[in-house]
Amino acid sequence: MPYAATPVARWSVDPGQRSDAPLVVALHGRGSDEDSFARLAPHLPEKAAVAFVRAPIAEGGGYAWFANRGIGRPLPESISATAEWLFGWLDTVAAPHSSVSLLGFSGGMAMAGGLLLAQPDRFAAAALLSGTMPWDAGLPDGPGRLAGVPVFWGRDVEDPVIPADLVERTGTWLRERSGARLQERLYPGLGHGIALPELADVAAFLGRAWDGSF
Q1: pTM of this prediction?
Q2: I want to staple 9 with a disulfide (CB 3.0 to 4.6 A). Which of 41, 51, 55, 117 is the partner?
């Protein structure tokens, strides 16, 4: 089934308030939706315009960003199609904003990672939560691919959902090969979720990335 012409997005601010604000593109987890993810809005920086975007593929009472061959393992043609769709949408909404950053949770982290790998120069920062980068999906991941990009990676080492081998590969690449300006935080007891202390760290991270103090 072809994707809708325009993604469904729930915005944290009214259209007239979006100009010049940093834009945060927020990507929910697999099987969720934009309305559930929009509950995070009060905990994100007030100066931001946050677009909580609905994934394009109906699944499990919610939506998914791509078809996969196992948890955290996107099919290359599927994640590429979604990336092209999202980039086309960004071309229509990004211009009034001072910058564009990414926030992705779980499957949304893999999607955000895919966008970063595809076009890293488009993004001022990325907050990646409880997930993995999209490995073996045909996206460029050579050394220095994210050179200079501020990246926040938050998780629980006991996350029961994301395969440990993918987490290990993600950590090694982000720390040693990506070139990103990485802030890594661990949240014992979080499981596979998002907690208020983590959101406070994300908000502080984004603020520093935007003002150049990170």
Answers
A1: 0.97
A2: 51
